[in-house]
């Protein structure tokens, strides 16, 4: 049966006090007294008599010898409390665990079940020493299992925190669909600001740039409800052209506006004249 110890090597004092029992023996009180005498000798510091009886009640303090470091601070220990019945050992004694530290409620229940199973195996024989040994061995096993569970839970907690941190740094992956949703909400927000008095002045630089590209600013419209062309944007706000200089990479061609000086005197048609006025504006701005 799981959790039960093999046949325990019984100390000599215990053997002497309990030997000679026959199946016809009916003096249970005498047999119980013999076992108590042996237990006092085996557990001089751990044995504590609660009721001299008959039937007697007593408890044995059990403390594990090998305690994992991560549960040692709990100072694990317990008392195995035993109350004889009038016909013990031909019937089971009453067993309970008290003052338990270091075990969960579930583990304590498991330990008591194991002790009761062990007692059932030894009905008809003096069994208290065997029960105490089984309790100690099972106690140590349950502490080791608890230590392993705690280590597993701690590793899982750390892994979850690391994953959460990675997700925070990774941010949200942008797809065309999510970008379109964000863009619509962003422009809707800007439009709401522009409806306010002097709303244009409330815009952040990013909002103003988006409003200009989206044709939301009245000051940058070529006509009511008409988006500005690229040329109209440059004419209205030359900083847009200058800001592109930040994106010029090695190998790109730059244009010296001074090369176009004097072109005002050339015979240009109306369209060329209009386009050249843009260059003139850039030159004046640079001066």
From TrEMBL:
<feature type="region of interest" description="Disordered">
    <location>
        <begin position="265"/>
        <end position="287"/>
    </location>
</feature>
<dbReference type="GO" id="GO:0009893">
    <property type="term" value="P:positive regulation of metabolic process"/>
</dbReference>
<dbReference type="GO" id="GO:0033554">
    <property type="term" value="P:cellular response to stress"/>
</dbReference>
<dbReference type="Pfam" id="PF05773">
    <property type="entry name" value="RWD"/>
</dbReference>
<dbReference type="InterPro" id="IPR006575">
    <property type="entry name" value="RWD_dom"/>
</dbReference>
<protein>
    <recommendedName>
        <fullName>RWD domain-containing protein</fullName>
    </recommendedName>
</protein>
<feature type="domain" description="RWD">
    <location>
        <begin position="34"/>
        <end position="142"/>
    </location>
</feature>
<feature type="compositionally biased region" description="Acidic residues">
    <location>
        <begin position="265"/>
        <end position="276"/>
    </location>
</feature>
<dbReference type="InterPro" id="IPR040213">
    <property type="entry name" value="GIR2-like"/>
</dbReference>
<dbReference type="InterPro" id="IPR016135">
    <property type="entry name" value="UBQ-conjugating_enzyme/RWD"/>
</dbReference>
<dbReference type="GO" id="GO:0010468">
    <property type="term" value="P:regulation of gene expression"/>
</dbReference>
<dbReference type="GO" id="GO:0051246">
    <property type="term" value="P:regulation of protein metabolic process"/>
</dbReference>
């Amino acid at each position: 049966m799981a959790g039960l110890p093999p046949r325990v090597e019984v100390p000599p004092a215990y053997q002497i006090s309990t030997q000679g029992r026959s199946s016809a023996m009916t003096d249970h009180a005498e047999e119980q007294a013999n076992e108590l005498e042996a237990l006092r000798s085996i557990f001089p510091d751990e044995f504590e008599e609660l009721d001299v009886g008959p039937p007697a009640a007593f408890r044995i303090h059990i403390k594990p010898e090998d305690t994992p470091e991560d549960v040692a601070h709990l100072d694990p220990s317990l008392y195995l409390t035993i109350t004889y019945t009038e016909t013990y050992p031909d019937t089971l004694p009453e067993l309970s665990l008290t003052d338990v530290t270091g075990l969960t409620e579930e583990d304590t229940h498991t330990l008591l079940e194991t002790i009761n199973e062990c007692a059932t195996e030894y009905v008809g024989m003096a069994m208290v020493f065997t029960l105490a040994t089984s309790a100690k061995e099972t106690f140590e096993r349950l502490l080791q299992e608890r230590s392993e569970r705690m280590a597993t839970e701690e590793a899982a907690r750390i892994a979850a925190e690391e994953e959460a941190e990675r997700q925070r740094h990774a941010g949200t992956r942008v797809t065309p669909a999510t970008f379109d949703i964000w863009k619509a909400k962003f422009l809707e927000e800007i439009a709401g600001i522009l409806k306010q008095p002097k709303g244009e002045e409330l815009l952040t630089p990013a909002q103003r740039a988006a409003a200009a590209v989206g044709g939301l600013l009245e000051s940058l419209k070529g006509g009511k409800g008409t988006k500005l062309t690229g040329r109209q944007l440059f004419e209205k706000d030359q900083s847009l052209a200058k800001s592109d200089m930040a994106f010029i990479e090695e190998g790109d061609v730059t244009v010296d506006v001074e090369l176009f000086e004097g072109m005002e005197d050339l015979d240009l048609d109306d369209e060329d004249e209009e386009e050249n006025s843009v260059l003139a504006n850039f030159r004046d701005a640079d001066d």
